[in-house]
Design a protein that fits this description.
Shape of chain A: elongated
Number of helices of chain B: 15
Strand content of chain B: under 5%
Number of strands of chain A: 5
Distance between the termini of chain A: 88 Å
Order of helices and strands of chain B: HHHHHHHHHHHHHHH
Helix content of chain B: over 70%
Radius of gyration of chain A: 28 Å
Distance between the termini of chain B: 34 Å
Structural class of chain A: alpha+beta
Helix content of chain A: 40-55%
Oligomer: heterodimer
Structural class of chain B: mainly alpha
Largest sheet of chain A: 5 strands, antiparallel
Largest interface: A-B, 67 and 80 residues
Chain lengths: 201, 273
């Protein structure tokens, strides 16, 4: 027995056939790239402002190359403090060396608007310190102490950075301190953010 | 030699200036990747703790020493210079920009800390240009889509930055710029003292940035004689952030998106008549 095919169905298959004929590799490529860019744009929108489950998934599970930007420059909280990284060595059980400061911030030259290689060191340390500072409350809340913070990436980077400076002795124990100050304004006193334990380096 | 008669090519040339400066800056500071440097691979590799990620990226991990990255940066400089001689639409031009994209993606695995919004905008532009200019596969329509994507991302960046400032009490009260300028990291002693002396200038600057950033996408739809006000504002804004805050790479990365904004604006219906 023959099945009757309705006119709309015929029209649909006709359209589908025409579409399939049009789908040459160039059209397929155009379609794929357009969809990819649309998803990239959508992912960028989703990853702004509040951290959600979707944004965390995109940022930490998919975005290996840091391709999803966060466009909230200097907002909502503008960076209004300078960070300071200091270290000292244990000479004996009761004797310590003076605190030495690692140069993170330095005055820019008149050519910095064009040529500013120093910004890289400053940005790296600023990112690392900010990452460390922002993770302190969660470590306090979850673990009750800051012991686990020692295994975090930013802590290890800071420790590695301070451990590169000249040692007082071969078997040296070094401690570092993170502090913050209000830069050129002298309205508020510098304050302590984190004091590490002594590490053998 | 290439000509600036094509929007994609103009975007690429402006971006290339910034990328060349940025790459030479990395070359000058390449010791940060040495074993005792800030981004030593001995430490940075700890980020790749999962075994599947490690095995996937392992072949390029060998590059992440100071000499390896120095070689990568030198090659990148040569690629950028090469792009001055070969148009983006030519096969050689496309191969050069693709290799440039690969070098940017590779380095991004080790510059996890220290990269900024200008690096992300640069990568975004380069990848878009690679995808939308593949020889034998690209069409005029796809190139236009790429330019639209770059222009829309630029507008999104300004609007997001504007809204984030609008919801911030520090920005609304007009103290944020003075506070940022008073840091040694992003500020300047002279600018800080000047803003302390004139609080009204501080308030004006804060609100100027909030309003202009938030409504920046209007430049896509307004008639060109009004839209250009936003681009001139953007030029001045980025020039002064480079001058006062040392954010030189942002200037080139964002200026590179302006030809795309010009293109979108001129595709609006009222420009067709």
């Amino acid at each position: 027995m023959k099945r009757r095919v309705s006119i709309p169905t015929l029209l649909f298959f006709n359209q589908f056939e025409i579409m399939m004929l049009k789908l040459n590799p160039i059209v397929i490529y155009e379609l794929v790239v357009t969809i990819f860019l649309a998803f990239w744009f959508l992912a960028t929108i989703l990853c702004q402002f509040k951290e959600t489950k979707i944004s965390s998934f995109i940022r930490y599970k998919i975005d290996y190359f840091n391709l999803i930007p966060l466009w909230t420059f200097f907002a909502p909280h503008p960076g209004k403090r300078d960070y300071h990284l200091l270290y000292r060595d244990k000479i004996t059980d009761i004797d310590y060396s003076d605190w030495q400061e690692m140069e993170i911030t330095e005055e820019r030259t008149i050519w910095s608007w064009l040529w500013n290689p120093e910004k890289r060191d400053k940005k790296i340390l600023s990112d690392v310190v900010q990452s460390l500072v922002s993770s302190i409350p969660s470590y306090r809340e979850k673990a009750g102490s800051l012991n686990l913070l020692m295994f975090s990436m930013p802590y290890i980077i800071v420790l590695h950075a301070v451990s590169q400076y000249k040692k007082q002795s071969q078997n040296c124990y070094r401690q570092f301190m993170l502090a913050e100050s209000s830069g050129y304004q002298k309205e508020t006193a510098p304050s302590l953010i984190l004091l590490s334990v002594f590490h053998q380096i | 030699m290439i000509l600036l008669n094509d929007i994609s090519q103009t975007v690429l040339i402006i971006l290339s200036i910034g990328l060349l400066i940025s790459t030479l800056e990395y070359l000058k500071k390449v010791q940060i990747f040495s074993p005792n440097g800030l981004l030593s691979w001995n430490v940075m590799q700890l980020k790749w703790s999962k075994q599947n990620e490690k095995s996937f990226f392992k072949p390029i991990f060998k590059l992440f020493s100071a000499p390896g990255l120095a070689a990568l940066f030198i090659i990148r400089c040569l690629l950028i210079i090469g792009l001055l001689f070969f148009p983006l639409q030519s096969t050689t031009g496309w191969v050069l920009i693709s290799l440039l994209g690969v070098s940017l993606l590779t380095a991004s695995l080790v510059t996890y800390y220290g990269s900024d919004g200008s690096d992300q905008m640069s990568m975004l532009i380069i990848i878009t240009l690679i995808l939308c200019n593949l020889p034998a596969f690209t069409t005029g329509k796809l190139r236009d889509i790429g330019i639209w994507f770059i222009g829309l991302q630029a507008c999104l960046s300004y609007t997001v930055a504007g809204i984030a400032k609008l919801v911030s009490a520090e920005w609304r009260s007009g103290t944020a710029i003075k506070d940022v300028f008073s840091t040694k990291t992003y500020g300047s002693k002279k600018a800080s003292l000047l803003l302390q002396k004139y609080p009204s200038a501080n308030r004006f600057l804060c609100w100027n940035v909030i309003v202009m950033e938030t409504i920046f996408p209007l430049c896509l739809i307004l008639p060109w004689q009004y839209a250009i006000v936003f681009l001139i504002w953007g030029f001045i804004f980025h020039f002064f952030t480079a001058l006062i805050m040392g954010l030189n790479s942002f200037f080139w990365a964002f200026m590179a998106t302006y030809p795309a904004i010009y293109f979108i604006n001129h595709q609006m219906p009222w420009h067709l008549f």
